[in-house]
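pinned: reference chain
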Amino acid sequence: MEVNYIDAHCHLQFEQYAADDAALIERMRDEGVAGIVVGVDLESSRKAIALAEQYEHLFASVGLHPNHADESFDEAAYRVLAAHPNVVAFGECGLDYFRPAEVNDEVKEKQKGLFRKHAALAGELNKPLIIHARPSKGTMDAYDDVLEILKEAKTAYPDLRGDAHFFVGGAAEAQEFVTLGFTVSFTAVITFARDYDEVIRAAPLSSILSETDAPYVAPASRRGERNDPLAVIEVVEKIAAIRSEDPETVRTALVQNARRLFSLPVAGR
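pinned: its structure tokens
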């Protein structure tokens, strides 16, 4: 299959696709859309791997989402999953200071401890991290703490790399990720919100990925509906428009960026 687009973050294993996942995945193949299916706990990580085993244009990431920080982190089980040949990343992991009903020091420390475990394993196993960082309203607190932990981890694992998924930070935070050797990725929210135009223009093209976070956040053309990885086509087109750059140049670069970060064995044009 010739890959024209790569959705760097989707959840095709979620129940929202139970009725039509096979048909949707075949449509992705027809459109040249490859995808990273991202786990948020052990069960969804195993389901991501099962899809990646079945379809050559799907790959898996395994991890425990920060909103599951109260759950036990079975390091041995995640090590086994991460060793699977179809697993190309470790996560979704990170810090979420927005969604929990109460965010106090105890909650933050649990999330930080869990994230440090992911960062250490990713460094040891030479897998890129897929990072979830959601700051509290009106702040960049989660990004500040994520970046601090990454800087610590890179002293032990200098080659540690990854992607700040669904990036909602500013140009300064994006530059800090880029300086650490990380990418930032954008979803279809950019098709209906102008909040991210500045950072999209400021970030180096070589450090940007396209994603959908499907089934969440459908593009402007399908607001309110279930999202899917085919929306990555609109995301790429919008990134090119915001940057005032040639769409084909941007499309090609974003495919190459994802192939490089995740070491994907896929053909592209």
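why pinned: The chain has one domain: 2-264. The radius of gyration is 17 Å.
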